[in-house]
Specification:
5-stranded antiparallel beta sheet; single chain; alpha+beta; Aminopeptidase; 29% strand; 6 helices
Amino acid sequence: MRHSLPLATQFYVTASQPCPYLEGKLERKLFAGLQGEHANTLNDALSKQGFRRSQNVLYRPSCTDCNACMSARIRVADFKPTKSQKRILRKNSHIMRDASAPWATEHQYKLFKRYLETRHSDGGMADMDMFEFSAMVEETPVRSRIVEYTMRHSINERGKLKAVCLTDLLEDGLSLVYSFFDPDMHKNSLGTYMILDHIEIAKEADLPYVYLGYWVPGSPKMGYKSGFDALEVFTNGDWMALENPEDFKPQENTDGADPISEQVAAISLPDVLRTGNL
C-alpha cells in the first residue's frame, strides 16, 4: 500500500506481522526508498526523525497499538563511560580498528555466520548467503564505511578478524547500521566496545551524535542500549533525554496510530527533495 503527499519522496507502509521483539505484539513499518543523487540528504533528514537504514530503504515503526520501538542516539559531548564500560575499553586495548569503503569479504561473512548461529539462529538473517551478505554491505547509496576490528599481534601486525560494524556517516553523527562479532569473545563485550569506539570516532570528528538503532524497553535483545549515558530517544515526534530508563514507560496507542497520510505530512524534508527541485 502506498501513501504519498505532493513530495518527490514516496512513503509506503508494510502489512502488520508478528513483532520480533515483544511477544504478542504486531509490527508495521513506514518506509521510503533511498536512491539517486540526493540519497545522502534524505538519509540525513530522516535519521534525525527516527528512521533507520537497511540497504536502500529507510524505515520507522508505525505500529497500530504500540510505541515501544524508539530510535536511540548518544550525545557525544555529554557521554561519560561507566566503570564497567571503562573496564571493557581496557580489556580490548589490544584491538585494532580499520575503516574502509563498504566491501564484503569471505572473512567477514564467516564471522557473520558464526555470530548468527550463536546469537540469532532463529532470526530473519540466519539464512543469508554470501551474495545477500555482500548486498547488505555494498548496496549503499549513502556515505558508509565498513569498520573492522582485529587482534593486535605487534605494532603493525593484524591478527584475526573479531568484530565488524557497517556504519553510515551522517552530517550530525555516526549511525551503526549493523554489527557482529566473534561469539567466542563474549567476555570482552565486543558489542558494547564497538559503540564506545564509535563514540570516540565521533568525538574526534566533532560529530554530536552516535545513532544506535531502536531501543525497545522490555526486550532482552534491544534493552542493552539503555546502559549508555547521555541517551536520547525519538518519541512523539521529538528527541527526549532518557534520564531513568528503568522508569520509562512508552505510551500505548489506545486510540490507534495516526493515519499514514498524517504521519507522512508531519515528516520534514529539505527543499531539494520536494517536487520541482529534483
